[in-house]
Amino acid sequence: MPPLLSTGRLYSSPLAPQHGPDDRLYIGGNESEGHFSLINEACSMFAHTNPLHLDVFKSVVRFEAEVVAMTAALLGSKEKASGGQICGNMTSGGTESILLAVKSSRDYMKANKNITCPEMIIPESAHSAYDKAAQYFKIKLWRVPVNKEFQADVKAIKKYINKNTILIVGSAPGFPHGIIDPIEELGELALSYRICLHVDLCLGGFVLPFARKLGYPIPPFDFSVQGVTSISADVHKYGLAPKGTSIVLYRNHEIRKHQFVAVTEWSGGLYVSPTIAGSRPGSLIAGAWAAMLSLGQEGYLEHTREIMEASKRLQNGVKEIPELFMIGRPDMTIVAFGSNVIDIFEVNDLLSSKGWHLNPLQRPNSIHICVTLQHVPIVDNFLKDLKDSVQIVKQNPGPISGGLAPIYGAAGKIPDRGLLFQQPMVTMCAASTVESCKM
C-alpha cells in the first residue's frame, strides 16, 4: 500500500452561485485547475476500464485495493483492537455501502445464529438507506427516537432487541444534525447480544480521523471500538473524490464473504460479483485513488482544519441570532437550526432565492447547512443573508411565491406522512428523464 502523499491546496469555486454555493459539492476549484483537474484527468485515462474483469484491468483492481486499504488505515485497521482483518470494497455511494453492509449482516447472522426472520434497529436520525435495505432484503425495521441530545438512545434501542435482531446502527455523524452517536455504548450492546453493529461514516470518514489529530474532542467511532462489525465511508464527500465512490468495510473476512454473489452453474461460465453492480466504472476508482494520493495526510489535515474552523464560526454566528436555536451540539461540519418564533422553512425559501441551498429537516422542523470547502471564505456572507432572511420573515410572515415552505410545513402536521406520496399533488418527476408531468 502506498503512503498518503502530502500535496494539495484549497481553491475558490466559480461553479456555484455567487452568494451561496451548494452544500453538496465538496470539492473546491473548477474543472480546469487544481484538484478538479487532477481527478478529471485520472478518470478520463481509465474511462474504458471495468474491474469486473480482474485479469484484464489489473491496474484498476490494484487501485481499488489500495483505496480500501488506505481508508481502513484511517478507520482503525492498524489498531490492535481491530483484529487485523479489516477488509472491504468500493461501491457507487453511501447507499450501496449501507445496503451491502445490511445484506452481509443479515446473511452472517443467519449462518451463525440461524435467524430467518431478521430485524434491525436504527435511531430515527439514521439515513433512509436503511429503510431501502429493509425493503430490499425483507428485514423488519425498528426506528427508535433519539435522546434529548439528538443522539441514538442506547437504552431505547436495547428495549427492541430480541431473538431476531441482526443489526443495530450508529452514525458518526448523523446526516440531519451532524452529531456523533455513542458508538462505544452501541458497541458494548452489540457485543453483549452477539449482534452486528454498523457505523455510518459516510460523511465523517475522511474528516473525523483528521479532526482528532487536530485536537478536536472526537469520541471513538471506528474499528477500535469492540463490537463494530462494519463501516461505510464516502470517498466522494470529504475524501474529495469523484461522485460515485464510497467504501464498505468489515471487521473480518468471515462477515464480508456474505457480501459476495458467486454463480457456478451458469452456462456463461463462473460469475462472481462483490457488489450490487456487476460492471463498474474503473474511471471512478482511478479518480478516487488519485484524489487520496494527491492530497495525502497533510492535504486532508489542511482541509479539515479549514472546514472545522468555518463550522465553528458558523455555529457561533447562528447562536447570535435570537430567533434561532441550534439543534444539539454539532460534532463536525453540519450545522442544523430551527426557530420557535418564525417559520424556518420560509427562511429557507428566502435563502434559496439568494442562492443558498440548504436541507429542510423535520422532528423538529429545522434546516441545516453542510460546510464544505466552498463555504470557507464566505461564512460571513451566509450569516448576513441568514440574519436578513430571519428579519424579513419576522416582519412579513407568510410563504414567498414559488417557495416550498407550505409543503414542508404541512408535512410536519400530517399524522401519517406516507399519505403525501399517495397524492398526485406531490408526484415527483425528474425533468431529465420525463418530458412532462401531468398533475
UniProtKB/TrEMBL annotation:
Localization in the cell: Endoplasmic reticulum membrane
Pathway: Lipid metabolism; sphingolipid metabolism; Sphingolipid metabolism
Cofactor: pyridoxal 5'-phosphate
Membrane topology note: Single-pass membrane protein
SUPFAM superfamilies: PLP-dependent transferases
PANTHER family per the UniProt record, alphabetical: PTHR42735, SPHINGOSINE-1-PHOSPHATE LYASE 1 (PTHR42735:SF6)
Name under which the protein is recorded: Sphingosine-1-phosphate lyase
